[in-house]
Amino acid sequence: MKINRRQFTSMAGLSAAGLILPWTTQAGAKTNDKTSLMGRPVAAPDPGKNWHPLAAKRPHKDIMGRIQGIMKREGYGAFILMLGENVCYATGYFSKFAYTPSLPIGAQTIAVIPADGDAHICVSSYEADDARRQVVDDVKVEAMPGFVFIDDGTEESRAEKDPRLDPLVTIKSAVEIAKDVAGNGKIGTELGMLSWAFKDVMDKELGADRLSDCTDLMYESRLIKFPWEIDMLRLSAQHAERWMTRVAQELKPGMNAMVFDKICQEAAWAEDTENSMSLLGYQTAIGPYWGIGLAPRNYVIQEGDVCRIDGGSTHLGYISDISRTWAVGGSEGKPDQKHVETYNALYAGMKKGLDMLAPGVVMGDFYEAVRAEVEKSPIFPNYARGHVGHSISVKPQAEDSLTISRGQKAKFEPGMVVCVEFSYMAAQGAYAPGGYNVEDTFAITEDGYDRFTMANDHLIWNV
Predict the structure, then answer these.
(1) Domain map (residue ranges) of the chain
(2) Nearest Cα to Cα of residue 404 among 448, 335, 356, 453
(3) What is the third-level CATH fold of 60-222?
(4) At how many degrees (to 10) do helices 169-181 and 196-206 cross?
(5) Nearest alpha carbon to residue 129 among 53, 49, 44
(6) Of 141, 426, 436, 461, which sits 20 to 30 A from 213 (CA to CA)?
């Protein structure tokens, strides 16, 4: 199905409003007659349960079946999962504490997944109410002591608490559950992420020879998406596209660059049509500034400045990661021709990628072909980019495994959701200093791809 940018934007907007189905916007694939979960009406969840109507459709049994199938195949009796993305994927619980970088991994939230039976989740008492509402009844919630005074009307809840909380209480509780459910099987965890204190508890209680790293197995479990996950990732990506478009409309020459972040924040919340966003994460670049912190506070935006937003938001745990780069002022901004040439060279890589993206294509071959296309420009005699895309799911860093990179032997498969990107940070001394990226999100289908978003094909983006 060939559509132009204007048609795509109109269809995506109607899709977000529930007026057409996202499946009808597929590019490079036959129309799929599945009814999308984004359509109206959406059945309400059971009283007192899921925090959002869309979460009620999460295929928990299918996800558990996949994880437990991998566990049995590899001889595991239990997984003790501490990374926020693995907790979220396995149980459906999106823990803000688990996604907070400043908190040690597993300090507040740990999931225990047996090879047979129901999942368990150990959370602080402060998170217990959220956890019980977000998960299905098949997930057992274990509340750990915390500093917050939670009064449930009982004498026990109102009793004085020891101010010296055990910082290892969550891992100790998870280990006890794992010992009960694992039988004689191995116990897996994300070994590379453990603190020494947590590792010490697990070695003493479970035996170091019984522990094994399950990080790659969890990557495997998340790689091929269920239809509900594809819908969540589409919702998240199209939300990011709407709010980035809104920012491009509102950012004008003469503004102090400090308003950039404010406009991003306001636009993201305003465009959250499903009221499903919980986190917002993005990087910006404006004019000669291409760092990843806040927009500069001492710079007045000029006509023709190159502007970039990269990132997105989180919806029910599912992340978006797209990028938009444009010249402030549109065609009136009169961007420097060097900037236009730089963007065109990067976009040529995306065009080549669109011609190649399909199931069965080796990711390493895709990388070499699109990189060679970018390097046809004299601006990029060596486009030294480590990868040109990645899988995406519930990982807070957005860039999930696998990456589309040199030597990657994996093939694109139906059910994968990937971001294809051509990022370039041009510091002073480069041909056209500034921050650039062309990035969109795609679901791989049986005979092509479902394109969630459509980047502007020129630096002059008349939104």
Answers:
(1) 60-222, 226-451
(2) 356
(3) Creatine Amidinohydrolase; Chain A, domain 1 (3.40.350)
(4) 30
(5) 49
(6) 141
Report the 10 Å Cβ neighbour count for 47: 5
Express each pLDDT in 217-247 by its tens digit.
999 999 999 999 999 999 999 999 999 999 9
Does pLDDT of 38 surpass 50?
A: no
Give Cα 430 to chain centroid, integer Å: 31
Q: What is the reported pLDDT for 264?
A: 96
Q: How far is CA 28 from the centre of its chain?
A: 24
Q: Write down the pLDDT at residue 290.
A: 87
Q: Looking up tokens 């806040």, which residue turns up?
A: 294
**308 contact partners, CB below 8 Å, separation of at least 6:** 283, 284, 285, 286, 290, 323, 324, 325, 434, 435, 436, 437
Q: Which of 43-57, 72-86, 259-273, 331-345 has the lowest mean pLDDT?
A: 43-57
- Under 8 Å between Cβ of 54 and 232: yes
How many beta carbons lie within 10 A of that of residue 6, not counting itself?
A: 9
Report, in angstroms and rounded to the nearest whole number, the Rg of the chain calculated over CA atoms.
24
- Residue range 135-150: average pLDDT? 90
394-437 pLDDT, tens digit per residue, is 988 768 899 999 999 999 999 999 999 999 999 999 999 999 99
> With 0-12 CB in 10 A as exposed, 13-18 as middle and 19+ as buried, what is 412?
buried
CB 335 within 8 A of CB 318: no
**226-451 has which fold?**
Creatine Amidinohydrolase (3.90.230)
- Using H for helix, E for strand and C for coil, what is the string for the chain? CCCCHHHHHHHHHHHHCCCCCHHHHCECCCCCCCCCCCCCCCCCCCCCCCCCHHHHHCCHHHHHHHHHHHHHHHCEEEEEECCHHHHHHHHCCCCCCCCCCCCCCCCCEEEEEECCCCCEEEEEHHHHHHHHHHCCCCCEEEEECCCCCCCCCCHHHHCCCCCCCCCCHHHHHHHHHHHHHCCCCEEEECHHHCCHHHHHHHHHHHCHHHEEECHHHHHHHHHCCCHHHHHHHHHHHHHHHHHHHHHHHHCCCCCECCHHHHHHHHHHHHCCCCCCEEEEEEEEEECCECCCCCCCCCCECCCCCEEEEEEEEEECCEECCEEEEEECCHHHHCCCHHHHHHHHHHHHHHHHHHHHCCCCCEHHHHHHHHHHHHCCCCCCCCCCCCEEEEECCCCCCCCEEEEEECCCCCECCCCCEEEEEEEEEECECECCCEEEEEEEEEEEECCEEEECCCCCCCCCCCC
What is the identity of the amino acid at 13?
A: G
